[in-house]
Amino acid sequence: MASLLHLDSSANRSDDSVSRELTSLFADTWRAAHGPTGECGRYRYVYRDLAADPVRPLDTAYCTLGRRLERNGLPPLADVGTWIRSPAEEREWALTRSLIAGLLAADTVVIGAPMYNFSVSALLKAWIDRVGFPGVFTDPDTGASLLRATNVVVIATRGGAYGPGTPREAWDFQTPYLRTYFGKQGVTEENIHFVSVEMTMAGVVPHLAHQQSSAADSLASARAEVTALAATVGRSASRTAV
Ligand SMILES: Cc1cc2nc3c(=O)[nH]c(=O)nc-3n(C[C@H](O)[C@H](O)[C@H](O)COP(=O)(O)O)c2cc1C
């Protein structure tokens, strides 16, 4: 059964959030393309709003458990529980394991990722740090990544412009960062898709007012890209929940 994990990480939960509008467009289009849900449905859909329901930041127990696993050759996901040595580690692992299971159960993940201070929001970073637990995406039988067939769609919004050839191109630590992170976890280059919306602050900041028409063009292209991607990404996929 096809499965979509939908994450929003904009701190702005109002209708002004561009990433929320576009992840929602993606999810609606994807669901329409995959048929009705319900007992006989053909897809599984999970939504998490990381602003309304934030992921707890890491603590000492998470690090202690992770270091123990590193020292012992990174046991597979199914064996991590046998290395837990304290109630605090138990609590940390329960939180972490449920996020990892949610990611592994999805064949497509759509992420609303606004640029905050040239990078991603702390809300998304908290999710990233937890799911990036050492060794858990390695298939113990083959050594390949368990995410090698996962599709990741990132909706990257930013108030300014960071596209190729712009003066601030090198200040973009949002999309290169996410490409590196998911690539390192084993998501393949062809399965990671970025839709960027530039100049979202053009209608808000007076000195950017002259950019309003290019901002509108960027948003219109993004809507078209999102609609096309949602109709095609993850078709004919099937994944068993972990
Ligand atoms: C805390 C914060 C930091 C931001 N930092 C940047 C930045 O470094 N560069 C930029 O172009 N826009 C920046 N912005 C503007 C947002 O990227 C822009 O408003 C974006 O559309 C927010 O995503 P959303 O519309 O999905 O909420 C920042 C906004 C906030 C709230």
Count of domain modules: 1
- In terms of per-residue confidence, which ranges show pLDDT below 50 for 5 or more consecutive residues? none
CATH superfamily: Flavodoxin domain
Largest sheet features: 5 strands, parallel
- Assign the CATH class: Alpha Beta
Count of separate DSSP helical elements: 6
Overall pLDDT metric: 94
Strand order of the largest sheet: 2-1-3-4-5
Helix content: 25-40%
In total, the number of strands is: 5
What is the 3D shape?
Answer: globular
Which CATH-level-2 architecture? 3-Layer(aba) Sandwich
Rg estimate, integer Å: 19 Å
What is the first-to-last residue Cα distance? 13 Å
Q: What fraction of the residues are assigned to beta strands by DSSP?
A: 5-15%
